[in-house]
Amino acid sequence: MSSAASPTSAVDTTPATSVSPGSANSKPVPVKLVLLGESAVGKSSLVIRFVNHDYIENREPTIGAAFLTQKTTVEDRTIKFEIWDTAGQERFHSLAPMYYRNAQAAVVVYDVTKAATLDKAKSWVKELQRQANPHIVIALVGNKLDLVDEQPASEEEQNDDDDAESVNRQVSTEDAAAYAQEAGLLFYETSAKTGANVEQVFVEIAKNVPLEYIMYSRPGARTGAGPGGGNPRIDLLREGGNANGSSSSGCAC
């Protein structure tokens, strides 16, 4: 699939998270991960929180596909996540397969304050389960937990929308968790703003990446940093990116 060229941002970090003793010097295993979800659910904010430990209020949508990397060490393995942050706008939906093709993991994000975004997330899950790698690890993530008022609002508070600092939850934890269990997904609720549970999502994915991605390695193979690249350890590479982990696409994230 071809697309018009546009700038792509690339961020690489060296510190590992969740380091376990004796494993910090192990060779990192590249794992391609794609973020999917409706526009404005906070996909970019989640990955920036994970990679840079930062949050940008009122962040402008990214023009071009954002590619970032981060290392996470769990148990006896060090995972180098190669993260593609995709566009949420419907007009860019047709480009998504270019990014989730050969991905070993996916984070499908919805907004806990907007029920319609969970419906969209479910459609992404169905598409991944139908078209992506059959062994892909999928995490369903309900974001914007910081906006939720868990306490029942009084009548006065309900009538004071202009001054409200929080909004009512539209997607219950129980309903989303039940769906995730039925669909065989990992499940977390997060806040990119406060950082709540963000790192845990990626650590849990790292723990659940199938062992064959690590066992059947091919030393010297390219990491597949391009949008369509896969993990060379299971010989899924079809086309790779350049050594700097950057590429061009017509995606707006």
TrEMBL record:
Gene Ontology molecular function, alphabetical? GTP binding; GTPase activity
The entry's protein name is Putative VPS21-Rab5-like GTPase
Residue ranges under compositional bias (Acidic residues)?
Answer: 151-165
Q: NCBIfam families of this UniProt entry?
A: small_GTP
Q: Which PANTHER family match?
A: PTHR47978
Q: Which UniProt keywords apply?
A: Nucleotide-binding
For region Disordered, the annotated ranges are 1-25, 151-170
